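Ticket #342: bound-state structure for uridine-5'-diphosphate.
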Amino acid sequence: MARAKKSEKGITENILQFPSNKSKKLKKILVAGGAGFLGSHLCESLLAADNDVICVDDLSTGRIENIKHLFDLPNFTFRRHDVRSPLNVRVDVIFNFAGPASSPAYQADPVGTLFTNIVGARNLLELARRRDATIIQASTSEVYGDSRVSPQREDHLGDVGTTGPRACHNEGTRCAEAQFFDFHRLYGLKVKVARIFNTYGPRMRPDDGRVISNFIVQALRNAPITIYGSGLQTRSFCYVDDLVGGFMKLFNSSPDVIGPINLGNPTELTMIDLAHRIIRLTNSKSPVVHMLAAVDDTKQRRPDISRAAGQLGWRPHVDIDDGLLATIDHFDGVLRHAAANN
Ligand code: UDP
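RESOLUTION: The complex was predicted; output attached.
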């Protein structure tokens, strides 16, 4: 059971409590990648809604500190496991968040990333089939590639390629999606596929390499803000609570909602705008510097969320400045803690 409280910034915070109804048959839910940034927030929301959660993570990019506050809860278990190997547990629902999401992380091990996306999804699909479980794929807007259409709707087939350094991630997640729809067609497996657009918030790693974590850490240190290329490329940033709310709605949706379904915030920003917002919100003295553009970078990304609005009744609520302030608080705490321990 969750009590919700509004923070000073208007962001809802879940306060975890033990389930109220001990006799109720709880759903057993496996969250693969559950110790990661998004997976750990999802574990909290599922526990707060009185479910049994089995968190599976190989801790390659996920971290124990994201979930250690859940270890004392009777309905939470953690298993260190790499989904590239098969696993067998009793489950009713599986969420697949396994795999590195930031471009430095997935480009550091492109072949491993491909195998996690493809073989990991296959292993979890086989588990769902054996257990007659529903399986929900955390796919990504990367399936649209460097899209020539904006906003991106789910029926856009994508402007993608196999030759660049992002291919391991976008082709890997495209293959994962294809397997989901094949298992649905061939075996009648209950599947749901969500495509996540850029998401940010507390628990991102300071060394994650994505733009929001880089800019905030740089601003808090008064170090140069590194814009790759012109800075005119755009992204649409969704606060983590909004995104997890979308997954909870998908989880509770009827079996005929299979997706793919975009989850993201349509407010689009250039990287120059983002840099100046973060400088303003942190009162930073950081200069802005332009570096070489990233290879294979996407120029424009913005979700069309009419399907999520129509089928799930979902849309994001957190304003970008409120979400950035909460994320700045998080990184401020992380940097202070690191300084105190040095
Ligand atoms: N970016 C940047 N400076 C950084 C990190 C990223 O200008 O320090 C740019 C990057 O080139 C891209 C955008 O910010 O155009 C978003 O990058 P991110 O890695 O956060 O997300 P993705 O490209 O995977 O959507």
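RESOLUTION NOTES: Residues 86 and 253 are 28 Å apart (CA to CA).
TICKET STATUS: resolved
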